[in-house]
Amino acid sequence: MSPAHQQTGVRSPGFINGGVSFWYRAIGWPEPRPALPGDLDADVCIVGAGLTGLWAAHYLSQAQPDLRIVVLEREFAGFGASGRNGGWLSAELAGSRDAYAATHGQQGVVDLMRAMRGAVDEVIAVAAANGIDADIAKDGLLHVARNRAQMTRLRESVEYERRWGAGPEDFVVLSRDEMDARIRVRNSLGGLFSPHCARVQPAKLVTGLARAVEAGGVTIYEQTTVTDIRQGRAVTDRGSVRAPVILRCLEGFTATIPGQRRNWLPMNSSMIVTQPLPKAALEKIGWEGAELLGDYAHGYMYAQRTADNRIALGGRGIPYRYGSAIDDRGATQEWTVNALTALMHDMFPDSRDVPIDHAWCGVLGVPRDWTATVDFDRSTGMGTAGGYVGSGLTTTNLAGHTLADLVLGRDTALTRLPWVGRRVRQWEPEPLRWLGVQGMYALYRTADRMENEKNTPRTSPLARLANAITGR
């Protein structure tokens, strides 16, 4: 049996795999809201009570308080990626900037990047105004390079960002010593710092936003499964909601709606979290601030130090389930738990004796060109937003705000952003999409291994091949 398939690391006596996420385990389950009581009429019906739908409801109700807004949710508000993610409130843009620039030019992309940075502060401001305590700390984002090829990509990324309008204050290259002064990662060669990121406890944010939206007059019906979305109607197992505006805000769960299986592929991402680190381990790791941490590997990782001094670390495990299937309430594969644990121990050797407390996974929406979309068809009253490719915590705010402006018929800076109205071709039918995704990540994992072994400054051709095949 290979090391990746062996049980790795110490696990706490109360270790849980699944159960939606550790974030909910930490705060307790939200009180269930009533199901849809039967057929009813509304002005706006939003399908999906994740962050996209809740942000759209927030901005619609703030702009026009007399709107009858109904949000429908199969489980509970924040059940999906909104309550399972890594807690990166970052300005990282989902998708290909070249794809956005093809329709709106370089300035359109610069405007979108600027809007993303503004959305980070917007989320923080809305949380403060509504008394949402989500462990928010804006200490920025660090990406570490751990071999020569990653260091090359780090330097290339700075040049790339500056071509798209970033200033010297937006991305700062750190030497190995400067990186170590913030977080000591084994084999670090240096890092890149951006101030445009805040740590968040995801479940606290989404449950707090749901309460704020309800206080603004929006009705959320949970335990209600939408079985079909049509012009002017959302059909559920509890009745139908008739509304001139129907917004589909399902992100990775879009494939659960009839006819949508090939539109946005539900890609899996998984996380583990330790028990609180003892003082001695924290001192050796040196992670005193609330910086978020990523890397330049192709099979990338993302991490945060939680408010109670745990390390929560995530990455791709088994990236895709055949037929666009969804996980079982966050349960992830043993292989994935072991792989993430091994990665954390490799990066932070002083975490080896700290038990793993919880593991979980969730799905994120991936369009065929890996580029996000916000769309509203005024002639049909139907709209959607998603395809955030794992960079959704901030993006949901900007997308939801943009959807609200589109619904209200406003001509604003948001409605002119280049992701509005994009059309993307569908994913291939099975088994082609399963084979494609599995092959892509096999290439990325092999590329990472080769770069570590050969210590070359060049990115592996296998990674470039994977990018070319998938259209990333």
CATH topology of the domain at 3-23 and 136-199 and 265-368 and 430-470: D-Amino Acid Oxidase, Chain A, domain 2
Helical content class = 25-40%
Helix and strand composition category: alpha/beta
Rg, rounded, reads 21 Å
State the shape: globular
User: What oligomerization state is this entry in?
Assistant: single chain
What is the terminal separation in angstroms?
Answer: 33 Å
Spans where pLDDT lies below 50 across 5 or more residues? 1-5
Overall mean pLDDT: 92
Total beta strand runs: 21
Q: Please tell me the CATH architecture of the domain at 3-23 and 136-199 and 265-368 and 430-470 by its name.
A: 2-Layer Sandwich
CATH secondary-structure class of the domain at 3-23 and 136-199 and 265-368 and 430-470: Alpha Beta
Largest sheet: 9 strands, mixed
- The strand order across the widest sheet is 1-19-15-18-17-16-6-8-7
**Alpha plus pi helix count:** 11
- Strand share of the residues? 15-25%
- Going by CATH, the homologous superfamily of the domain at 3-23 and 136-199 and 265-368 and 430-470 would be D-Amino Acid Oxidase, subunit A, domain 2
Domain FAD dependent oxidoreductase: 43-406
GO cellular component, one term: cytoplasm
Protein name: FAD-dependent oxidoreductase
Organism: Mycolicibacterium litorale
